[in-house]
Amino acid sequence: MTILRVEGVSKAFQGLHALGDVAFEVDEGQILGIIGPNGAGKTTLFNAISGALKPDSGRIVLAGDDITGRPPHRIARAGLVRTFQLMRPFRSMTVLENVGVASMSHTSAHREVVAHASEVVERVGLGRWRDTSAAELPTAGLKRLELARALAMRPKVLLLDEVLAGLVPAERAPLLELLAALRDEDGLTMLFIEHIMAAVMRLSDQVLVLEQGRVLTLGAPEEVTRDPRVVEAYLGEEPSGAET
Ligand SMILES: Nc1ncnc2c1ncn2[C@@H]1O[C@H](COP(=O)(O)OP(=O)(O)OP(=O)(O)O)[C@@H](O)[C@H]1O
């Protein structure tokens, strides 16, 4: 079943077509990897879907509900939540408190907030850090905290913006496993922008390739890597971090 439908979305900045007629669908419980060279429009696409930017034209439909142009907090409440590459937790608060703040988007009853936040903290593998202040977390822990804060908002669809950036290969593999488990065990739908091709290939059910604001191709990872246009536009660029 389709959970997210992007219909002919376009966005221009002073005449520059950052997105041109972008259309695709994501099925519930699937992971869509989004790749493309620098400036291809990946971040603009996330901004348009999550409400940070209003598209010039086109529609974004979440679980049958037209969310186009709604403000980000309303889109998040409708079930589409985004993580940011630049993580901004409340540094003086503990891991559990940070996640609790996000849980409050759904309930204000203290006991429920703590119970739900604790569950999410465990789910992302931060159980032993729950009472540590965010400021003391290493980068890999901060990535998990960012993920936990998003999960605490009970998303139907999660947008992940370069969640692996800044991690060494040994830290990437367990995070990838966690994302796969969130799909396979919890049925979470995810869209993720990623430059590390090996991670995209391993995790994605479908890969969307953007080039100059347009969809170059959309398909299963193995089809996409065989597409000569993709090799020329992107893979030929010597993707970084292929060792994951
Ligand atoms: N607010 C803005 N004002 C003007 N131009 C913008 C704005 N945001 C993005 N652009 C332009 O739109 C195009 C797409 O940018 P975008 O950041 O979406 O690409 P990207 O694929 O995310 O790139 P990267 O991989 O470098 O993050 C670029 O040419 C960029 O300069």
TrEMBL record:
PROSITE patterns, per the entry = ABC_TRANSPORTER_2 (PS50893)
- Record has ATP-binding as a keyword: yes
Q: This chain belongs to which protein, by name? A: Amino acid/amide ABC transporter ATP-binding protein 1 (HAAT family)
KW Nucleotide-binding (keyword) present: yes
Output the superkingdom of the source species: Bacteria
Q: Which InterPro entries does the protein's record reference? A: AAA+_ATPase (IPR003593), ABC_AA/LPS_Transport (IPR051120), ABC_transporter-like_ATP-bd (IPR003439), BCA_ABC_TP_C (IPR032823), P-loop_NTPase (IPR027417)
User: Tell me, what is one Gene Ontology molecular-function annotation carried by this entry?
Assistant: ATP hydrolysis activity
Record-linked Gene3D superfamilies: P-loop containing nucleotide triphosphate hydrolases
What Pfam families does this protein map onto? ABC_tran (PF00005), BCA_ABC_TP_C (PF12399)
Q: Which organism is it from?
A: Actinoallomurus bryophytorum
